[in-house]
Design goal:
139 residues, 9-stranded antiparallel β-sheet, two-stranded antiparallel ribbon, 1 helix
Length: 139
C-alpha cells in the first residue's frame, strides 16, 4: 500500500484529473520470476527466450511491471505462480480472451481454462506456426 492513500503501490490517483492510473515502473525480473520461467535466456532489457527442459518452446517474452509479461505470440499475459499445486505451475490471465489458463512447464503448450463458465475445464494448446518458425499460433 502507498503510505496514506490506501492504494496499492502500483496504482496512483493523478493530481490533475483525480483519475486512477497504473504507474510505470520496473521490478527486477529475478525477483518476480516463478519456477515456470526457470532456465530462460536473458537478453537484457527485460527480454527473455524460454525453451523447457523437454524441448517445448515457450518463446520470446518481455517482463513488464508487476506480474505482466508481453509474449511475442500470445500478447499480454498476467501471471500468478501456482507452484504450490505442481512444480513449475502457473496461471495466466490472457488479456486478449479475458480467460484464465493453467499450465506447467511440463505440459505447455497445453493450457486449461480455469475461468468459471462454459469453457471452464476445456483444454487449449498453442500450435507452432509453420509460416513463422519458433512462434505459436493462437488457441
Amino acid at each position: 500500500m502507498t503510505q496514506g492513500t490506501g492504494l496499492p503501490a502500483w496504482l496512483r490517483r493523478t493530481a490533475i484529473t483525480g483519475m486512477l492510473c497504473l504507474m510505470a515502473f520496473s521490478i527486477p525480473a529475478e525477483a518476480q520470476q516463478p519456477a515456470f520461467f526457470a532456465g530462460a535466456t536473458d537478453f537484457g532489457s527485460s527480454s527473455y527466450f524460454l525453451t523447457f527442459p523437454d524441448g517445448n518452446l515457450f518463446g520470446y517474452y518481455w517482463v513488464e511491471s508487476g506480474d505482466w509479461i508481453f509474449h511475442n505470440d500470445m500478447g499480454w499475459e498476467y501471471y500468478v505462480d501456482a507452484n504450490s499445486s505442481s512444480p513449475g505451475a502457473i496461471y495466466f490471465y490472457d488479456n486478449s480472451t479475458g480467460l484464465w489458463f493453467y499450465t506447467t512447464s511440463g505440459i505447455f503448450p497445453f493450457l486449461e481454462v480455469t475461468t468459471p463458465g462454459a469453457l471452464n475445464g476445456v483444454w487449449f494448446w498453442y500450435e507452432l506456426d509453420p509460416k513463422n518458425p519458433g512462434h505459436y499460433t493462437g488457441p
